[in-house]
Design a protein that fits this description.
This protein is of the alpha/beta class. Helix content is about 35%, strand content about 15%. Bound molecules: nicotinamide-adenine-dinucleotide. It holds the Pfam family 2-Hacid_dh_C.
Length: about 325
């Protein structure tokens, strides 16, 4: 089978090569995401795969279908990049890699929480000027003293909750889906109750109509003054204007985001700092705001799993078979 793999990054290449040797299938890699302009390059291939944060609009599926492609295997969790109804109308089956390494994201979320708690950015900036005093950053709190609300207790949220519980934190969970096995380390509650009690709020939901702009100004008005906000899920969950206001007023003690609503304008690219979106330039000046370039997933385990699982699914779906990773609605 011949597979066209869009938006391939150099780190994926060794795993692609190993997968080809193991399976006997051929993979051709492109460095651009799948768009209307290059969907036609799938002509002559049996299957396609991509990983990207840019949306794939309706004409993409039509062009793929006209070229005999029956599926798209996404090498990532978040599949809001698909126009699912448009794909289904062209009889294109879709898959994602639902769990390549939930630990990778959970560990990074924990890393950023500790960075905020320990004032690492303040200390780093002060030391860069020769200021090695304790006062430069200030005292930290220890994690066992904190109540952490996890909004979205799925694959990643559950792992993060277990880690926090093991460290002695109190963990609240908000999720329309109740998982009894999580009761060992989570107290399930309502969103309003969680916002009223939490010292830390961490988002691990998909982006959908309920979660888009969930953290708006009304949300920030309900939290305790001095709360920490973490968003490693999807940028559009948090209203960045309300976030900035809340950081400036002290309603937020600190925030760390790995994703932003406007991330396609600058993430995974090199540019002059002055070319960054203005809100990002302002926010990154703050000592208590941590931005990272969508790297929470970025570990050796995750890259290997996302390549191998997506390519296996590409073959399975192109052959008319079934995989647990298929997106059914
Ligand atoms: P998942 O589907 O396993 O879990 C999501 C959970 O959110 C589910 O339990 C679901 O019931 C719950 N949920 C849905 N709507 C909700 C709402 N309105 N309120 C509360 N809970 C709600 O997904 P996952 O694999 O844990 O991924 C979570 C998020 O992390 C996704 O947005 C994904 O795109 C993102 N992600 C980010 C990175 C990164 O590198 N930053 C990497 C992987 C995944």
């Amino acid at each position: 089978m011949k597979i066209l793999m869009y938006n391939t990054v150099p780190e994926e290449q060794p795993f692609v090569t190993a997968w080809m040797a193991k399976t006997g299938h051929e993979v051709v890699t492109l460095s651009e995401p799948l768009t209307v302009d290059n969907a036609g390059q799938a002509a002559g291939f049996d299957a396609v795969s991509t990983q990207q944060t840019t949306a794939m609009p309706a004409p993409v599926y039509q062009i793929l279908a006209e070229n005999g492609i029956k599926q798209i295997a996404l090498r990532q969790v978040g599949y809001d990049v698909f126009d699912v109804p448009a794909a289904f109308s062209q009889k294109i089956r879709l898959s994602n890699v639902a769990a390549y390494s939930p630990r990778a994201i959970a560990e990074y979320t924990l890393t950023q929480l500790f960075n905020i708690l320990r004032h690492n950015k303040q200390f780093e900036r002060a030391m860069a000027t020769g200021d090695y005093t304790w006062a430069a950053g200030g005292q930290a709190r220890e994690i066992y003293q904190l109540t952490v609300a996890i909004i979205g207790v799925g694959r990643i949220g559950s792992v993060f909750a277990q880690m926090l519980h093991a460290l002695g934190a109190k963990v609240l969970g908000v999720d329309p889906v109740y998982r009894a096995q999580n009761e060992v380390f989570i107290e399930y509650t309502t969103l309003d109750d969680a916002l009223a009690r939490a010292n830390v709020i961490s988002f691990h939901t998909p982006l959908n109509e309920e979660t888009r702009n969930l953290a708006d100004q009304a949300f920030f008005d309900k939290i305790q003054p001095g709360t920490i906000l973490l968003n490693m899920a999807r940028g559009e969950i948090v209203d960045m204007t309300a976030l900035e206001t809340s950081l400036n007023t002290g309603q937020l003690y600190g925030a760390a985001v790995d994703v932003t609503p406007n991330e396609n304008a600058f993430m995974n690219q090199k540019q002059a700092v002055t070319d960054l979106p203005e809100n990002i330039q302002r926010l990154t000046q703050l000592d208590n705001f941590y931005l990272s370039p969508h790297i929470a997933f970025y570990t050796n385990t995750a890259i290997k799993n996302m390549v191998e699982m997506a390519l296996n699914d590409a073959v399975t779906l192109a052959n008319g078979g079934y995989t647990d990773n298929e997106i059914l609605r």
